Amino acid sequence: MMGSDRAPARRVVIRRARLQQGEAYARDAADLVAVEEPLQIRLLLAGEDPRGKGTPLALTMRTPGNDVDLAAGFLFGEGVVAKRDDIVAIRRCQDPAEAERHNILKVHLRSSELPSAARLERHFAVNSACGVCGKTHLEALEMRCPTPLAPGPRLSPEVLAHLPGALRAAQTVFGRTGGLHAAGLFTRDGELVALREDVGRHNALDKLVGWALLEGRLPLAEHVVCVSGRASYELTQKAVVAGAAVLAAVSAPSSLAVDVARRFGLTLVGFLRDERFNVYAGEQRLDLAPSRPSAQASPTSPGSAIPTRTA
């Protein structure tokens, strides 16, 4: 299976401005920016010529790198494939007539049938921020996933508090650009197993899950998934499908993400920063002590467990 040799960051010439004593001074400078390019995923069925064009399934804006993982994770998350053996090969387009062949992946499936039209309809355009979601997808999710999830690991708060720093330290492209999301897979002891970066938070998680699928590591029941941004419905759904028992985010969850976590028994942690966090679901997996007798503040007071919201 072929990867990508496209650089995830690009140098650009900018004007760097600074205010001094009421005046704005600018000078020429160079900066590194995260690359965002389209990736088209096409499907080839059993018996089809690998050199054929394939059937377009999805177009997503992503940061080049780990494209094979991204395609595999996307297909798994959306139910197009259920296991590693459903994929024969993932190849980059080699047709010289395709001007954007470096941004086209062809996934050769073992199946001889395309996914249903209803499933395909959703995916012809996906952006890097979020996908199409809503409460109607909960029923479809229940059809794919057992309820509740596996018992999973039992975690100490100290391990949880360590995760954002470990995630950030391993973000090599973010360190150069400041412009990427990350998804990391950790053991119950806080050891980083794998990390993927992308301009899209859901792409980063697809890359991580795709890696796990291709490496034969699914389900992720004994691991912790930590993401660098907020916990949207889509990220929560992808974690559930991958069998993860714990999803931790450094920012806020959405209401639908909380609904998914509670329905499927996922431990959902938000605002994980500065040795504080909120538990929105699945508290049974965390070793939490009772509140101190003196901590009788209201739920929204400075003494509560709710961190200050920051952008």
Give your account of this protein's structure.
There is one protein chain. With 311 residues, this protein is of the alpha/beta class. It has 2 domains: 37-129, Roll (Ubiquitin-like (UB roll)), CATH 3.10.20.10; 157-285, Cytidine Deaminase, domain 2 (3-Layer(aba) Sandwich). 25% of the residues lie in helices and 28% in strands. The protein has helices at 67-77, 117-121, 136-144, 157-169, 172-177, 201-214, 233-241, 255-264, and strands at 9-20, 23-34, 37-44, 55-62, 87-92, 104-109, 181-186, 192-198, 224-227, 246-249, 267-273, 276-281. A 6-stranded mixed sheet has the order 8-7-9-10-11-12, sandwiched between helices. A 4-stranded mixed sheet has the order 4-3-6-5, covered by helices on one side.
**What is the CATH-assigned architecture of the largest domain?**
3-Layer(aba) Sandwich
**Unreliably modeled segments:** 121-133, 297-311
Q: How many distinct folded domains?
A: 2
Structural category = alpha/beta
Number of strands: 12
Global Rg: 21 Å
Q: Name the average pLDDT.
A: 87
Oligomer: single chain
At CATH level 3, the topology of the largest domain is Cytidine Deaminase, domain 2
Strand order of the largest sheet: 8-7-9-10-11-12
Helical fraction: 10-25%
Amino- and carboxy-terminal Cα gap: 39 Å
* Fraction of residues in β-strands: 25-35%
Q: N-to-C SSE series? A: EEEEHEEHHHHEEHEHEHEE
